[in-house]
């Protein structure tokens, strides 16, 4: 039986290994990059490569063929710019227009837990209101845009901070002078889990849903960077002092665990450091 064709918009740090996992599983995969020098990397990995940009209009080589697919995974974070909210909305307005002329019937949006405000408590999928950051505001608006479309079904996946491989806290210790907000719990997820979760959503056809996706263990910042310093054999960073505790949120992923019968590959971000 022919497997569905999957298009991945954004084959970067997460998108490339995701595409490789789908190729290994026997899916026909199309993938995009914004840099010509990366096209050969995608081709060598068995991915049909396309040069695609959203700046903010969708542009590139043969967008129609790129979106001649069953499933689209969108993995493009909001650009860091002054008009971040307006620009991200324009990007997705253009993408939605292009999808209207495509064969795509299912969209998976890689979003972020930045859609949740820090209210000093646990948050579930329904608690995404009035994000603290502009990037969170942009993502929440784009989530709503896609979920309202009737021409395709959308699942939103809100990842915590992405870690693993070269995104190891030891790598950043030299650039830090102290651990800010040392008693603030962290919401993190390993890239291996991100790839497996997306794969499971597609395998199980979990469309029209919104899922949080964070490791179930939420280490304090002092614990996370303290362990990194121990492993790197360097002195512990001083802990920043503040008059009041920093606001926090504990992202709950129980809905995803239940729907996918999912067991995290790396449930504890500290343990996965080594």
Structure explained in plain terms:
It is a single chain. The protein is an alpha/beta fold. The protein has a single domain, classed as Rossmann fold, CATH 3.40.50.720. The protein has 8 helices and 12 strands. The chain has helices at 15-24, 39-44, 63-66, 84-99, 134-147, 191-203, 221-232, 254-260; strands at residues 6-9, 29-33, 48-54, 58-60, 71-74, 106-112, 121-123, 153-159, 161-163, 188-190, 210-213, 249-251. It has an 8-stranded mixed sheet, with helices on both faces. Strands 7-12 form a two-stranded parallel sheet. The longest helix has 16 residues, at 84-99.
CATH class: Alpha Beta
What's the tally of helices? Answer: 8
CATH architecture type: 3-Layer(aba) Sandwich
| Helix percentage | 25-40%
SS content category: alpha/beta
CATH topology: Rossmann fold
Strand content: 15-25%
Give the strand order, joined by hyphens, for the main sheet.
4-3-2-1-5-6-8-11
Q: Can you tag this structure with a few keywords?
A:
274 residues; alpha/beta; globular
List the helices and strands and how they pair.
Elements: E1 6-9, H1 15-24, E2 29-33, H2 39-44, E3 48-54, E4 58-60, H3 63-66, E5 71-74, H4 84-99, E6 106-112, E7 121-123, H5 134-147, E8 153-159, E9 161-163, E10 188-190, H6 191-203, E11 210-213, H7 221-232, E12 249-251, H8 254-260
Parallel strand pairs: 1-2, 1-5, 2-3, 5-6, 6-8, 7-12, 8-11, 9-10
Antiparallel strand pairs: 3-4
Summarize the structure.
The chain has 274 residues and is an alpha/beta fold. The protein has helices at residues 15-24, 39-44, 63-66, 84-99, 134-147, 191-203, 221-232, 254-260, and strands at 6-9, 29-33, 48-54, 58-60, 71-74, 106-112, 121-123, 153-159, 161-163, 188-190, 210-213, 249-251.
């Amino acid at each position: 039986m022919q497997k569905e064709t999957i298009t991945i918009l954004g084959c970067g740090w997460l998108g490339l290994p995701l595409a490789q996992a789908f190729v290994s599983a026997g899916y026909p995969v199309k993938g995009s990059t914004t840099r010509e020098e990366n096209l050969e990397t995608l081709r060598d990995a068995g991915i049909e490569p396309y040069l695609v940009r959203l700046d903010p209009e969708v542009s590139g080589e043969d967008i129609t063929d790129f979106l001649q697919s069953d499933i689209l995974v969108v993995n493009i974070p909001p650009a860091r710019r002054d008009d971040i909210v307006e620009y991200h909305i324009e990007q997705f307005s253009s993408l939605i227009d292009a999808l209207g002329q495509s064969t795509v019937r299912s969209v998976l949006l890689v979003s972020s837990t930045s859609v949740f405000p820090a209210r000093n408590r646990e948050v579930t999928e329904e608690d995404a209101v009035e994000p603290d950051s502009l990037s969170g505001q942009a993502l929440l608006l784009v989530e709503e845009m896609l979920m309202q479309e009737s021409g395709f079904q959308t699942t939103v996946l809100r990842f915590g901070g992405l870690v693993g491989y070269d995104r190891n806290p030891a790598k950043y210790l030299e650039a830090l002078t102290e651990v800010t907000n040392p008693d603030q719990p962290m919401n993190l997820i390993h890239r291996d889990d991100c790839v497996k979760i997306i794969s499971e959503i597609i395998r199980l056809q979990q469309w029209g849903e919104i899922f949080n996706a964070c490791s179930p263990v939420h280490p304090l910042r002092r614990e996370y960077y303290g362990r990194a310093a121990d492993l790197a054999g360097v002195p512990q960073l001083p802990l920043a002092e503040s008059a009041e505790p920093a606001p926090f949120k504990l992202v709950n992923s129980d809905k995803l665990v239940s729907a996918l019968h999912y067991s995290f590959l790396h449930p504890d971000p500290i343990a996965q450091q080594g």
